[in-house]
Amino acid sequence: MIVQPAGPGEPIARYSRAWAIFYAVVALAVAAAVLGQSETGTGRRAVAVGAIAVIALLYGLWGRRGQAGLPFVVVVLVVFAVGTVAVSTVSYLLFALCPLIFLVLEIRPAVVAVVCANLLPLVGALTNDGVDWYFLTHVAPISATTSAAAVWLGVWIHRVVEQSKERAALIAELESSRAEVARLSHETGVAAERARLAGEIHDTLAQGFTSIITLLQAADPALADERLALAVRTARENLAESRALLAALAPAALATGSLPDAVRRQATRFTEETGSPATFRLTGDTRALPTVVEVVLLRAAQEALTNVRRHANAHEVAVLLAFGADSVRLVVRDDGRGFDTAATTGFGLPGMRARAEQVNGTLTIHSDPDTGTLVEVEVPA
Asked: Measured between alpha carbons, how far is 264 from 255 in angstroms, rounded to an integer?
């Protein structure tokens, strides 16, 4: 059992079954040694054994309750002094008392108490036999050495205990930090996935349904069949996009062909829906790209053409897909009325920029009322 008061400077008591066994063994051994000294008077031996028994009783009834402190140590040392005055052999009980003092008291008062405890046998011997210079010159250095050794051992044990506490606190803090990091990572992942799904829905389903509404609203009775057929085809393509989105697959447009084919189909659809010509040009050596890069470029083409259809009132659009040695560029240029790039609202352009940044790409937009708008997405190949 370990008892540690919360307040600073308060005594600390640590008890265990192993320590209790050690204390009992030392006490019994010292008591047996005292009883075995037949040359010592019976009365002195009785006092010495009684002191050992009283200390054991104090330890069992007082010290083990976790309420031991300086009063407990003072009482124990007084009883110990009585025992050593009666029979000097009781001084061997220091093997158990010194560790006990360090367990009960804080480090500074424990050092003082241990030094006093080691001096008590010396005082007892002088009390019994008077001043004996031979005793002082031979026994006193031994007492000082044992005091120093006991203090060193106690301080070392104290440091080990404190380091163990610090390690335990650090481990607990690290575990808490790891749990917090895991929680924050989960929340960040959830937020990123929500943003990704929002971008996917905006770039596919929302744009497709907008096209369907535009086609139906602009339906001319003379061209009703053609417009309705185009609306039905757009609806089917959006249905395919939604299924691919739910299955976490690549866009349906990429599942049936290459990236250049998918971008070309977007330009062709723009012409069919608006009646304005949209040319597509491919340069460079085409090659397979990572799916995530192809998705970014295709979504950028879809978003740029949707913005032209909804806002630019353009007469002509040009789409360029250029494969370079180190990068791939998608450029969508129109001759519409342009817009203020600093005052844009909505999800489209920020979503396009965020997609490009996810693959270390860049989004560049130039717009002017006289010359139209240029949207360029460049990603490393």
From this structure: 15
